[in-house]
Design brief:
Blueprint lengths: L6 E5 L4 E5 L4 H8 L4 E2 L12 H7 L16 E8 L2 E4 L12 H5 L8 E8 L1 E2 L3 E9 L2 H12 L7 E5 L1 H6 L8 E9 L5 H13 L17 H22 L2 E7 L7 H20 L3 E10 L2 E11 L5 H18 L15 H7 L2 H14 L17
Antiparallel strand pairs: 1-2, 2-6, 3-7, 4-5, 4-6, 8-10, 9-10, 11-13, 12-13
Helix pairs in contact: 8-9
The chain binds flavin-adenine dinucleotide.
Length: 382
């Protein structure tokens, strides 16, 4: 797929482009930039992941609301299967029956190889504003996150970061939960939207620093510091692992009404697991994405590994927390995909008829189960 790295056509009228699936994030944006266009899909793995990978795993980008999943940018998609080529029509939308394109999205390579897609693009944004707002309590910040998600303001960034994680990111004092709220637009000033969002924060006890001479609070330094820390985090994780520190993330989504109990149970179970398996450890939480009906919480656990036992320890923690996520009403993944690690939990999440449909579809398209046989649905249980 590394040779499938070209943008084959740009349609400036419909603002979309035909793009080969092996292209890496930075190269994709580099090729679009001279046209004043962008896909504006930045998963944290942007530098080392491809358009085909994003489509095959239904990745989530940096937009906290509305334009979250890659799914929504797909105009048409082409996949080569052992039984022939599946290619969907270029359409802005369609209500014709079950969606062929949605069947390909998230298929994680088990039905075929995605070779290209027509992707919806955006004009490069000119107006941006971002602000970090502090809250005394986590619960208070959760209510504000919900209010923002349901406000219709659709912030491009709205990340709640709990006190410990905020402290670790150079964002907070260790006592305050922080919400980073941001807006962007190619066409109009976002100051009014930001003022509306800050009013919601203010009404609920939020405080923030206004830079002298910058009352509209654009591009706050704390928010910029967090952005850097967010982009460096994956590299830090690898270094921590080399030092024998177990670090893992669990990302999910649940409804607002379920979140308080869900959060309580996940943190309790994770803390107990860390105590039993590693002696001690910490768990932090942030919201990566917000929806009007619920947040996408992202938990990070850190613990000291026992030399030579790190993988076994990781396995046990992963199993306990993953099971808790499914048991208490979350999804096993909001954007990291299923693969092999999450396969047993995905199996618990779906209905029996759907499981059967996926298996029959796999057998129809790939009768010998050659393509990624252990991924997503798993050959062994077939
Ligand atoms: C540090 C880190 C941060 C991450 N952050 C995010 C994030 O913010 N948002 C997010 O959504 N995900 C994130 N991920 C998960 C992952 O990077 C994404 O899901 C990404 O979309 C995978 O793309 P890839 O090109 O790396 O695919 P790979 O990891 O190479 O492949 C993933 C799966 O898709 C299949 N596949 C790949 N290309 C194709 C193709 N062309 N046709 C058919 N099947 C294919 C592979 O066989 C495999 O099963 C992160 C991962 C890491 C390690």
């Amino acid at each position: 797929m590394q040779n499938f790295k070209q943008i084959l056509a740009i349609d400036p009228v419909s603002r979309s482009a035909r793009i080969q699936a092996g292209i890496y994030g930075p190269d994709l944006e580099k090729q679009l930039k001279p046209h004043g266009l962008t896909l504006r899909h930045y998963p944290q793995s942007f530098e080392y992941s491809t358009l085909g990978g994003w489509l095959a795993t239904r990745s989530g980008g940096h937009f906290a609301t509305v334009y979250t999943h890659i799914d929504d940018f797909v105009e048409s998609i082409r996949m080569i299967t052992p039984q022939g080529i599946m290619e969907t029509r270029r359409l802005p939308a369609s209500g014709a029956g079950p969606s062929e394109e949605r069947l390909i999205l998230g298929s994680e390579g088990i039905f075929g190889i995605i070779t290209e897609a027509w992707m919806r693009l955006q004009t490069i944004p000119q107006y941006k504003a971002t602000q970090a707002v502090k809250f005394k309590s986590f619960e208070q910040a959760v209510e504000v996150a919900r209010a923002l998600a349901q406000s219709g303001l659709n912030p491009s960034n709205a990340r709640l970061v709990d006190a410990l994680e905020a402290f670790g990111s150079g964002l907070g004092d260790g006592a305050s939960t922080v919400i980073i709220v941001g807006f962007e637009s190619a066409n109009h000033s976002v100051d009014n939207l930001m003022q509306e969002a800050l009013q919601i924060c203010h009404n609920n006890g939020g405080t923030w620093q206004v830079k002298t001479g910058n009352k509209s609070a654009q591009n706050d330094e704390n928010a910029e510091a967090w952005k850097k820390s967010f982009l460096h985090a994956p590299y830090l994780r690898d270094e921590m692992m080399k030092l024998g520190i177990i670090m893992e993330t669990f990302e999910t989504a649940t409804t607002w009404d379920n979140f308080p109990l869900f959060h309580q149970k996940i943190t309790e179970i994770a803390k107990q697991a860390l105590k039993d398996i590693c002696g001690a450890g910490s768990i932090t939480c942030r919201f990566t994405h917000l929806y009007p009906d619920g947040p996408a919480p992202y938990y990070t656990i850190i613990a000291r590994g026992q030399a030579g036992q790190e993988l076994a320890q990781w396995d046990k923690i992963k199993a306990l927390v993953s099971q808790a996520i499914v048991d208490y009403g979350g999804t096993i993944t909001h954007h990291h995909a299923v693969g092999k690690d999450h396969q047993p939990y995905y199996a618990q999440q779906m209905s029996a008829p759907f499981d059967k449909i996926l298996r029959n579809l796999k057998t129809t398209l790939d009768p010998h189960w050659i393509l990624n046989p252990d991924v997503l649905i798993g050959k062994l249980s077939n």
